[in-house]
């Protein structure tokens, strides 16, 4: 049953080993194509443009906090018991780190509270600095994480509808480099970067405000090879009078 996949602990290990925020190979030419969503059914990361391909699947969004992958505590706690994992607050939401972070300074004394897995300094009453540290600890001392899986109906809310807002943030008028080119262009011209094409096409939407004694020049198309001039204002200026020669 597809609904039982979120309760299968196998997704946890795939989730922690996944590399997020890499460009999506299926949407290379799209903006916001970072793979920051994990599909619990497919055990892989996807981008916001792939959401429609994973209809009815369970999805979990990954975010960035101080250059590290984090996930909202509210989202992850619906799937797994995150008790004793130290959370952090960003944008008024509590998040937890996915993996261990490298130690940036030496521990000078034995006072304070340390992560049970990696010895990072944390705050009371927490025992782990990251989600991965808790998983590693449970596997070493208990040999299984199954009993920590959340089997409540609350986990079912992590469906495709949760991430439709991601698609709304993407400009609906966005076009791939191939779609902005004229149909008559050769395939060799399709290697033009998306950034350059965006600059070229913005000229077609440039508007000139009509003023007194101004001339509106027609705008060229979006063809990168077009040599048509961009809109300019031409003001006629009266020159100095010249008298005719006396005969």
UniProtKB/TrEMBL annotation:
InterPro entries, sorted: PLATZ, Znf_B-box
Name of a matching Pfam family: PLATZ
Source species, domain of life: Eukaryota
Domain B box-type: 24-73
Record's keyword annotation contains Cell cycle: no
GO MF entries: zinc ion binding
Keyword tags: Metal-binding, Zinc, Zinc-finger
Name of the protein this chain belongs to: Platz transcription factor family protein
Species this protein is from: Thalictrum thalictroides (Rue-anemone)
């Amino acid at each position: 049953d597809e609904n039982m996949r979120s309760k299968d602990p196998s997704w946890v290990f795939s989730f922690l080993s996944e590399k997020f925020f890499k460009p999506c190979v299926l949407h290379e030419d799209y903006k916001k194509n970072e793979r920051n969503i994990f599909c619990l059914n497919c055990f892989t990361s996807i981008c916001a443009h792939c959401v429609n391909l994973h209809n009815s699947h369970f999805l979990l969004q990954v975010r960035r906090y101080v250059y590290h992958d984090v996930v909202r505590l509210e989202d992850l706690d619906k799937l797994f018991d995150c008790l004793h994992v130290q959370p952090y607050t960003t944008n008024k939401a509590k998040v937890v780190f996915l993996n261990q972070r490298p130690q940036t300074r030496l521990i000078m004394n034995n006072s304070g509270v340390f992560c049970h897995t990696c010895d990072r300094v944390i705050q009371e009453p927490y025992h782990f600095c990251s989600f991965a540290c808790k998983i590693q600890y449970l596997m070493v001392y208990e040999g299984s994480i199954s009993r920590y899986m959340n089997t409540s109906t609350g986990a079912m809310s992590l469906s495709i509808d949760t991430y439709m807002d991601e698609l709304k943030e993407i400009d609906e008028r966005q076009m791939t480099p191939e779609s902005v080119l004229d149909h008559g262009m050769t395939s060799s011209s399709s290697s033009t970067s998306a950034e350059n094409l965006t600059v070229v096409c913005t000229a077609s939407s440039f508007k000139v405000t009509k003023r007194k004694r101004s001339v509106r020049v027609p705008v060229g198309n979006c063809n990168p090879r077009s040599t048509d001039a961009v809109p300019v204002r031409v003001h006629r200026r009266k020159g100095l009078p010249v008298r005719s020669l006396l005969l």
